[in-house]
């Protein structure tokens, strides 16, 4: 027997339930997310030094600035979006 089709809202709730259950059973959150943090860090280092020619300290400093610029730009765009008038009508 096949399950009835779920609405987008039902799928969202099911995904949230699974995520919360998964995190509830995670003993070491830091270890679980270590690979993602390293990939993010490496991305910014490659961005500022694609050839790998800079000294490690200089590459780390530039990567930190690139990361700060990235997240600041995201915050700026988010603030702009929140200031825009909503296109949804309230009825």
Features:
single chain, 91 residues, mainly alpha, 71% helix
SSE blueprint:
Elements: H1 8-24, H2 29-48, H3 56-83
Helix pairs in contact: 2-3
Instruction: Give the terminus-to-terminus CA distance.
Output: 40 Å
**On the 0-100 scale, what is the average pLDDT?**
93
User: Which regions contain 5 or more consecutive residues with pLDDT less than 50?
Assistant: none
Q: Proportion of β residues?
A: under 5%
Describe the structure in your own words.
The protein is mostly helical and 91 residues long. The protein has a domain of 30 residues. The protein has 3 helices and no strands. It is flat and about 60 Å long. The two termini are 40 Å apart.
Write a brief structural summary:
By secondary structure, this protein is an all-alpha fold. The protein has helices spanning 8-24, 29-48, 56-83. α2 crosses α3 (56-83).
């Amino acid at each position: 027997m096949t399950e009835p089709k779920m609405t987008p809202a039902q799928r969202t709730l099911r995904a949230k339930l699974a995520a919360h259950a998964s995190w509830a059973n995670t003993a070491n959150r830091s270890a679980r997310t270590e690979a993602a943090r390293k990939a993010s860090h490496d991305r910014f280092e490659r961005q500022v030094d694609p050839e790998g020619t800079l000294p490690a300290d200089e590459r780390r400093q530039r990567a930190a600035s690139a990361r700060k610029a990235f997240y600041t730009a995201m915050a700026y765009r988010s603030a702009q979006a929140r200031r825009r008038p909503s296109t949804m009508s309230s009825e």
